[in-house]
Specification:
A hairpin with a 7-residue loop joins strand 1 and strand 2 (about 40-50). The chain is globular and about 50 Å long. The protein has a single domain (about 10-115, about 125-135), classed as Nucleic acid-binding proteins (OB fold (Dihydrolipoamide Acetyltransferase, E2P)). The chain has about 150 residues and is mainly beta. It has one helix at about 65; strands at about 20-30, 40-50, 55-60, 75-85, 100-110. It has a 5-stranded mixed β-barrel with strand order 1-2-3-5-4. It is about 5% helix and about 35% strand. It contains 1 helix and 5 strands.
Length: about 150
C-alpha cells in the first residue's frame, strides 16, 4: 500500500477539512438513550494515535449498521472524511478538546502492519487524594481501581 498522509490528533482543527486520520480503536460501546435505555443513540469509541493522543469518536444512530461490522477494538485504521467538532457536554471519557463524528462518506481501511507502531492503551492516573476534589466536577469521567 502506498504511503498515505494523515493528521495526528494534536493537529486537528474543526475549521479545516480533514481527509485522513490514523488511529487504533481502543474501546467501542453502544451509547444508550438516557430516557429509553433500550434505544441506542450512537456507537462511540476511543481512538488513539501513534503519539499517544486520545480522542472520542461517534457514529450516529443512522450509520451504525454501516460501520459496526468494520470496526474492531485493538485494530489500527486509516479513517477518511470525518467531522471534527469541539468536545462538549459532561462525563467525557477523554481529555481532548475535539470530538470526531463519522459521516455517510467516512471510509475505513484496516492497517495490519501498523499495530506495533501504536500504543495499545492510554491511562490518565489521578492522585487518590484528588478524587474528593473532583466530586462536583462532571466534565470528565473518573474511575477507580483498587488493589486489595
Amino acid at each position: 500500500m502506498e504511503h498515505l498522509k494523515y493528521q495526528p490528533f494534536d493537529q486537528l482543527n474543526p475549521y479545516k477539512s480533514h481527509s485522513t486520520l490514523k488511529a487504533r480503536v481502543t474501546r467501542i460501546w453502544d451509547a444508550h438513550d438516557f430516557i429509553n435505555k433500550e434505544d441506542i443513540r450512537s456507537l462511540d469509541m476511543l481512538l488513539l494515535d501513534e503519539h499517544g493522543d486520545q480522542i472520542r469518536a461517534t457514529i450516529p444512530k443512522k450509520l451504525i449498521s454501516k460501520y459496526r461490522a468494520l470496526l474492531r477494538e485493538g485494530q489500527v485504521y486509516l479513517i477518511r472524511k470525518v467531522n471534527v467538532t469541539f468536545a462538549k457536554g459532561n462525563y467525557r471519557p477523554v481529555h481532548h478538546q475535539y470530538h470526531i463524528y463519522f459521516k455517510e462518506d467516512t471510509s475505513l481501511i484496516e492497517i495490519c502492519s501498523a499495530n506495533s507502531d501504536f500504543p495499545n492503551f492510554k491511562f490518565v492516573f489521578n492522585d487518590y487524594m484528588d478524587i474528593p476534589k473532583r466530586y462536583q466536577q462532571n466534565t470528565y469521567l473518573i474511575g477507580m481501581h483498587t488493589i486489595l
